[in-house]
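User: Let's play a game. I give you a shape written as tokens, and you guess the letters that built it. Ready? Here's round one.
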């Protein structure tokens, strides 16, 4: 039986990974982190997407939730409310430097916990929506980091020392946002509750980097954003 665990935030990229995993694996687990993020509303939305995915794919999904308070470290606009989220930046600004929305070593922390859970459950495929193109150069979303971490898991676990091989799978790593969206649609992804905004409000701000990159992706993909269509149908104003 092919088994995998998806690091699942509830955002667009991890939702794409979830639907892909459901097509590729017999048994799928997800792990969702509450880390005192400004946009913790994504966790509520993630539960709705999981229900949609179970129905659309007619497959069970084993969900895991983990809390860790990264606000104790701070240093990011996503975990420190005193730091403002950048708004209305152009594409050059977004791609020119690592922004203040970078959470120090977040993916390293998430991968460590996920690897421990995976080892306990004898799951050797770890999937995440890491991306080198449409992110702001976050160092813990890069190929060399992920390859190195995969080696660390295999060296540093009991399972690895006994000959089991963990794989970190990165299906979206070198796709732009439009390609990710179209790839997701090929696998039946429903983005109606896939939340991307850094603001943490039910209606996306349309001005933060995440909103800008998402809007650009749907425009280039030539399709409407499921999330905004849902808001419109529910009578909410969208940006």
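Assistant: Ready! My guess for every position:
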């Amino acid at each position: 039986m092919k088994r995998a665990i998806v690091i699942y935030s509830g955002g667009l990229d991890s939702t794409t990974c979830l639907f892909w995993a459901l097509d590729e694996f017999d048994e799928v687990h997800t792990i969702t982190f509450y880390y005192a993020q400004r946009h913790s509303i994504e966790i509520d939305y993630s539960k709705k997407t999981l229900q949609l995915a179970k129905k659309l794919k007619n497959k069970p999904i084993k969900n895991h939730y983990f809390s860790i308070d990264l606000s104790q470290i701070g240093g990011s606009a996503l975990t420190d409310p005193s730091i403002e989220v950048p708004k209305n930046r152009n594409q050059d600004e977004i791609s020119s430097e690592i922004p203040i929305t970078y959470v120090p070593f977040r993916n390293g922390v998430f991968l460590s916990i996920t690897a421990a859970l995976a080892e306990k459950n004898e799951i050797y495929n770890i999937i995440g929506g890491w991306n080198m193109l449409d992110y702001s150069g976050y160092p813990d979303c890069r190929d060399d980091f992920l390859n190195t971490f995969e080696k660390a898991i295999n060296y540093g676990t009991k399972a690895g020392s006994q000959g089991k091989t963990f794989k970190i799978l990165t299906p979206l790593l070198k796709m732009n946002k439009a390609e990710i969206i179209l790839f997701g649609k090929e696998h039946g992804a429903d983005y109606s509750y896939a939340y991307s905004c850094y603001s943490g409000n039910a209606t996306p701000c349309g001005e933060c980097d995440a909103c800008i990159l998402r809007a650009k992706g749907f425009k280039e993909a030539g399709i409407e954003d499921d999330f905004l269509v849902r808001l419109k149908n529910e009578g909410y104003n969208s940006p």
